[in-house]
Fold:
Amino acid sequence: MRRHGVLTAVLLSGAVAHADAPPPAADASVRPAASSSAALAAQMALAQQIVLHGSPQGAHECAICHGEEGQGKIKAAFPHLAGLPKPYLERQLKHFDALARNNPSMQAIAHKLDDAQIAALATYFSRQVPPPIMSPVTPPPALGEALALRGRDAIPACVTCHGPGGRGLGGALSAAFPPIAGQPAVYLERQLRAWKNGQRPAGLDGLMGAIGKRLSEAEIVAVSQYFAAQPTLAATVATEARP
Ligand code: HEC
Ligand code: HEC
Structure:
């Protein structure tokens, strides 16, 4: 408990500091590549080859499930990868490869990718624009909104770490704390249950492991529906962009 209080205070001060700072890094991460560096171009080309055609070692093409630009497939509960932070994507592929994160399809795929391919794919997807998810399929339940915005005893509000509307905190903090807005509800539920059952690495300081264990099944469903219904950064960037 005490440890959580300290962490949350640190995080909050980080989030506030970020809000005062100019927002360049967050914005750059959701736009297509602007840099013309040869190294970046080579990474993007390597990644695109794997996304569309698979890897020479036999990893399936990402596009089948995640879409060519990482837009995901809501009905199949395949998460979008577009616009997720590069260090986060890289970490997840390594967790699948090490069998620490439990999904047989992704474990088999990550196992057939080397470090350079993983870095290239993480770069590629982090530079795509997330799908413009705007409106809820069903109005999100009040229980989900309460947890997301206010938290409860021993569970800090989700937006403390996942940013307003779950669209991420941006800047350096995004390396640890991914955006979760607009992901398929079933996908989000599966992640929270994985933490509850110890089947996904707990993240920075064990935070999501501790939170997952405290969530009830009803809370998991409600809060997942809430964040699935939140617009992504791509859908709000026009209205929220600062002068
Ligand atoms: C057969 C379908 C399929 C293919 C092909 C596939 N994925 Fe996935 N991917 C999934 C599923 C399903 C999940 C969700 C796993 C879970 O529930 O933990 C996922 C999750 C991920 C995640 C974690 C996302 C997050 O928000 O934490 C990353 C990163 C990822 N995939 C990258 C890739 C890359 C890179 C490729 C291509 C080399 C690829 N995937 C190919 C089905 C697929
Ligand atoms: C104190 C900080 C903190 C709080 C509060 C928090 N999270 Fe997280 N969350 C994290 C971290 C750190 C990660 C990244 C874990 C990793 O690197 O694998 C994460 C990742 C996630 C993911 C995985 C996203 C993906 O693409 O797979 C989901 C889903 C999630 N959190 C949901 C929630 C929900 C719902 C709440 C509120 C009940 C919440 N989180 C509150 C820190 C937090």
Remarks:
- Residues 2-20 form the longest helix (19 residues).
- Residues 8 and 20 are 18 Å apart (CA to CA).
- The domain at 38-126 is CATH 1.10.760.10 (Cytochrome Bc1 Complex; Chain D, domain 2).
- The pocket of heme C (ligand 2) is lined by residues 7-8, 11, 79, 88, 91, 147, 155-156, 158, 160-162, 176-178, 180, 183, 188, 191, 201, 203-204, 207-208, 211, 223 (CB under 6 Å).
